[in-house]
Amino acid sequence: MTATTTDSRPRPPEVPPQEPHSDHEPSPSSGGERVGAPALVIGLVGLLLTAYLIGNLFLAFSYYPQWFANSKLLIGLVALVAGVGGAVLFFHFLNMFVEALPGRLSRGLLPYAFLLPAIALIGLLLVYPLVQTINYSFANNDSTAYVGLDNYQTVLGSSDFWSAILNNVLWLILVPAATVAMGIAVAVLTDRLSPTGEKVGKSIIFLPMAISFVGAAAIWRLIYNFQPGEDQNGLLNAIWVGLGGSPQDWLSISDARLNSVLMMVILVWLQTGFAMILLSSAIKGVPEDTLEAARIDGANEWQIFSRIVMPQVKGTVITVFITVVILVLKVFDIVFVLTNGRNESDVIANLFFRELFTTQRSGVASAIVVLLLVAIIPVLIYQVRHFRAEERNS
After folding, report:
1. pTM for the whole thing?
2. Domain 151-212+256-393 is of which CATH architecture?
């Protein structure tokens, strides 16, 4: 009798024979994928066609009939539909085009493809005007011929320019410091109120932020108003006369740059709410146990604020200060509405506007802007370094 034995050991699964890879299909180990030629062509054509249509649609606004040009609501609706719908189509075709590329190339290009439109807009709206302004600063009044450094010599030799520089320096000294001080004071005081009182108080202080600079200047014109030989309806003159003084044309008093100081008050009033919100958040972020420990050790409220709270909110204070400094360097609307630079109240931005649109000296105006840009660059560098230091510390 013959015994049959069975091998119970597991056998490895059978592997089907693999077909050799063709030259047109990359192997899976290479990380590549098949290139979708139809999707690639459709994506590229749709991308170019969408960009062309959007650009021509907005450029064609000036050629529409008068009834359409006078309808701001209709223009807004068309711009909204074309802008949002065009953006959706643009990014749809862009995504289709990039995903149709070979796998490794597609994954590498995808983040940059979606950043490309934003970078292109920055280049078109910021970099190109900057380069052109620097170029025009070396040209004549109608930008038809180069004149070298003549425009800069004209600007630096002008008494109006140095008067505007002096005013800007005063704005830089007073406005940021006053704004930060007022913001800290309001933040500390409102934090001590009840929750309802805090909300109401902060809302009232923040409300001027919703007003444009032109609107704020118009409001404060009523406060500074002066009417020679008539009953005064300006609030400041009413107070001044009530205290026994005579009516004053406040915005014409250049002694000690009083007219400029009165305009600085408007900017401080506008920006105190901004400073309050940021500083209040920073103060609330100070650990409560640290404050309680200081009180147990016998520190008074001023010592707690100056030695514990302020060092911990120093970064926010610097951020608010630098933000207001940049705003002050380009202040224009308030001065333009109230004095237009009369009585030694001019600032650099208003001087540029007058040179460009009133005297029509575009070369001199461009030189003023370039000098203003040079003045702002150190502040921007310091701000970037400060932000990076804050990120490292956090």
Report:
1. 0.75
2. Orthogonal Bundle (1.10)
